Structure formats: structure tokens, C-alpha cells
Amino acid sequence: MGIEPQRHITLIGAGLAGALLATLMARAGWRVEVFEKRGDPRVQGYAGGRSINLALTERGRHALRMADADDAVMRQAVMMRGRMVHALDGRLQLQRYGRDDSEVIWSIHRGDLNITLLDLAERAGAVIQFNRRLESVDFDARIARFVNERDGGVHPVGFTALVGADGAGSSLRGAMQRREDLGERTEFLDHSYKELEIPPAADGGFIMEPNALHIWPRGHYMCIALPNDERTFTVTLFLPNEGDPGFDSVRSGAEAKALFLRDFADAVPLIPRLEQDWDANPTGLLATLYLERWHLRGQAVLLGDAAHAMVPFHGQGMNCAFEDCVALAHHLQSTQDLAKAFAAFEAERKPNALAIQEMALENYVEMRDKVDDTGYLLQRELELSLQQRHPDRFVPHYTMVSFMRIPYAVAQHRSHVQRDLLVRHTAGRDALDGIDWAAVDADVLARLPVLEETAG
Ligand code: FAD
Question: Of 13, 134, 265, 414, which has the most beta carbons under 10 Å away?
Fold first, then answer.
């Protein structure tokens, strides 16, 4: 019996998904080459990019466990038990995400996470070349051309198959699209974001409750803050592009300060460099990217933001990208036929990516507008009761998305049924007293089959 030749894969992008997939594939015995347009963050510092910190949830943690990366990542994570809602008058209310501390989410610094994953990928045997930007692809000759970002030199590299983990602005997607129509459509949100920083307190500790995702909901706009393990918080203000307030009317640091004094007054003393940060930091655009096809036969496939960028309001973009990595690694291991593996990967992940994209858009309205609304709070109360009465059937939306690994599409469908139930049974009430529990229970049993968690 001959020894099987080592299988080979070329990844574009060593961001979050690229570094994790490289680790998974190298550990599975593949020869993995990765090309990243930025410099090595371990040498020259992390060059930023999208949001400074991210919420990591069970789906992402499971994928990290598959690469034995969870322990190293969790050492730098800060627990967030729930939303700490900051009312206009400064009152605070913690709304727990789950039942107890077994159902929490984690704030993680993007740069630290990326570095941890790069180290693991290299340790597993992946070869990562930095400062190499994919420029063009000759699919017939199977040659990808990379530009050296330092000296402008162009390097042709032969490949067996390319994986695009190169983010929302994916160059590989552009090259594939030039070859064959992928059915690409981008819908920009009419809201954008700006990041600011809350430094540590004078004693070096956190200046406000660290174990929460802070949120200042204000109707059609909002501010959030996530803790970092160096005792800072990253604040993100989401505003419409146009309007009052909007990025067209709040143009300078001074105007931003006036907005904060009016609408987020309790945050103002916490952000000493508000005006400077505002002027220095870019305004980030938000969009959802839809593709009809994610792959080009056995030659190239996209994953993560390159395939399905989404708005960040469910904190699932990275978590979903990490699930993609596990799924693609699994399909690549299951067959020698790359075209089959890519098609199976797309068939498994595309409906789920679409579901979380839609849920992320819906969650924006919930976060900025509903978390302090009485009708919403009554629905939450009923939701908690139904969760206790039917723990294996009525599982809150947030739990299904953040603490379980059932497919996103299943979570979305069940959430729609549950929302309908909650709205119907709280309509016209301002409390749960006198509710017809027999009718509610019958409705649950009829419409929500027992929910089985996926194994593995
Ligand atoms: P990226 O992380 O964008 O990595 C792409 C990599 O490819 C980069 O390193 C880039 O330099 C490289 N690259 C790009 N072009 C080329 C090229 N031509 N050649 C070579 N390399 C290239 N997700 C969560 O799960 N939780 C959150 O709380 C969360 N919060 C967010 C907040 C905001 C404001 C935003 C904008 C996003 C948030 N996300 C969150 C989403 C998350 O950031 C993305 O889903 C995640 O970064 C996707 O990972 P990726 O590896 O696909 O892409």
C-alpha cells in the first residue's frame, strides 16, 4: 500500500476564520499555506480592522475547542452575564442572558484572539506569509498572484484549491465573480458606527461593572460597551447615517460630546478622550452580503465574512465564521473530491448564514428600541415562565442562538413561532396575572416539538 500524498490547500486571509481553519486543516495532516495582506501582528502590533472586541458564544467556543484553542483564548476573555441597560436618567438594570453563569457570553479582544490563533496555526504546521495581498487568480492555470505589500513585488503561486477567508471585501470573491456570476448583492444599513474608549479607573480596575455588555438604548440609535481584559471598555455608538442625531449632523468631536451630554450623560465622565477619539477614529459602515454561490467547482470556496458578512447586532459574525471552519474542515476530510466537499459545505452553511443574517438585522431593533419597553418586558416575563414550564420545548431565542449549536435556521424558525405565541398571549395585558395557562401550554405543545441539541 502506498502512502497517500499530503493534501494541499491555500487560504487567503489569516484573520479570525483563516487562522482557525489553518489550524484545523494542518492538524488534520494537510499542507496549509496562508497568505495575509497585513503584516504579522506579533511583530508590528495588531493593525486593527473591524471592531476592537467581540462577543464569543458557544458556537465559537465549540469551534475553538475542536482546534484545542479554547483554553488559550478563554484566558483573555471577560464574562458578560447579560445586558446592563443604562436608562436616560442613569438608572441601571441588568438583564441576564441565560439562567445562570453557565449561560453567559464572553468579550474577547480581536487582536489577542487573532494572535493566539496564528500561533496555534503555525504550531500545527501551517505556513503563513504576511504582507501578501491576493491580487488576481488565473483559474485555468491554477495560479494566484500576490502583491508584496512592502516592496510591490508580484508573486505567482500555484494552488490546488483556494479558500477565501479574506473578509467582507474579499479579493478572492472578486476574482471568482469575474470568472462566474456568484449572484452577489450587498445591502448597506442606513446606520454606521464609531468606536470610543473607556480607560481603567484611577486604581487600575474597571470603572463600571465588568461582567456585562453595557447598552444605552435610545430608540432609533444606541451605544454599547464591551469590557476588555486590560480593564478598559470599547464603546460603540450606532447612529443613522442621516437624521437628528445622525452621522451627517454629528460631524465633529465637539458635536459628539454635545450628543453624549444630552443622551448618554452617565457615559461622558467615563470617556475622557471622547472628542479626540471621535475625530481620530473612522466611521464604520455596516452591510449584509448575500451570495447565491459560495464556490467555483473544486477550485475555490468562500467562508466567513467573505461569503456572508452581516450586521453585528447578534454578535455572531465571528461565531458563524468559526462554525463555517469546522464544517468546511469536516467536508474536506470526508471526500477526496474538492468540488463535492465545497458543494456540501455550501449546502449545509448557506441557509444557516442567511438565517443569522436576518436575525442580526432584527436584533438591532430589539437592542436599540425594545429592551426598555414594557410590552417587551412582559413578553420576557412570559418567556421565562414558559421556559420553566417547558424547558425542552420553549427555549428563548437568545439561548438558541448563543448557548446552543442547533442550526441557525432552526433557531430562527422556532423563534418566529415563539414570538407569535408571546405576542398573542400577552396582547392587551400589563401583567401575567389571570393568564389562561392551559391555553398557553396547549399552544406550546402543539407548535413546538421537543428541541434536541446537536450531538458532538
Ligand atoms: P476578517 O476577520 O475580516 O479577516 C479577513 C482577513 O483577510 C484579514 O486579516 C485581512 O487583512 C485579510 N485580507 C483581506 N483581503 C486580503 C487579500 N486580498 N489578500 C490577503 N489577505 C486579505 N462577530 C461576533 O461573533 N461577535 C461580535 O461581537 C462581533 N462584533 C462586531 C462588531 C462590529 C462593529 C463589526 C463590524 C463586526 C463584528 N463581528 C462580531 C463580526 C466579525 O468581526 C466578523 O464576522 C469576523 O471578523 C469575520 O472573520 P473573517 O475571518 O471572515 O474576516
Answer: 13
Q: How far apart are CA 399 and CA 381, in angstroms?
A: 15
User: Cell 489550524 belongs to which residue?
Assistant: 23
C-alpha cell at 24: 484545523
Q: Fold for domain 8-77+102-185+287-363?
A: FAD/NAD(P)-binding domain (3.50.50)
Cell numbers representing residue 444 in the block: 406550546
Task: Kindly report whether the peptide bond that precedes residue 217 is cis, defined as omega within 30 degrees of 0.
Answer: no
State how far the alpha carbon of 268 is from the alpha carbons of 51, 278, 440, in Å: 21, 13, 45
CA-to-CA distance for 307 and 323, rounded, in angstroms?
13
Identify the bridge partners of residue 54 per DSSP, sorted by sequence position: 108
Taking the C-alpha atoms of residue 164 and residue 159, their distance in angstroms, rounded to an integer, is: 13
Per-block average pLDDT, block size 10, for the chain (456 residues)? Answer: 80 98 98 97 74 93 98 97 96 92 96 97 98 98 97 97 98 98 97 97 97 95 96 97 96 97 98 97 96 97 98 97 98 97 98 98 78 78 93 94 97 96 93 94 97 63
- Residue 165 CB less than 6 A away from ligand 1: yes
C-alpha cell at 207: 470603572
Please work out, in degrees rounded to the nearest 5, the angle formed at the alpha carbon of residue 358 by the alpha carbons of 443 and 181.
135
What ranges do the domains of the chain cover? 8-77+102-185+287-363, 188-283, 373-447
Cβ of 37 less than 6 Å from ligand 1: yes
Residue 52 near ligand 1, beta carbon < 6 Å: no
Q: How far is the CA of 55 from the centre of ligand 1 (A)?
A: 13
**Quick check: CB of 167 below 6 Å from ligand 1?**
yes
- Rg (C-alpha) for the chain, rounded Å, is 23
The residue assigned the cell 491555500 is: 10
Q: Show the cell assigned to 16.
A: 479570525
Whether the full predicted model's pTM is greater than 0.85, yes or no, is yes
- Tell me the CA–centroid distance for residue 109 and ligand 1, in Å: 13
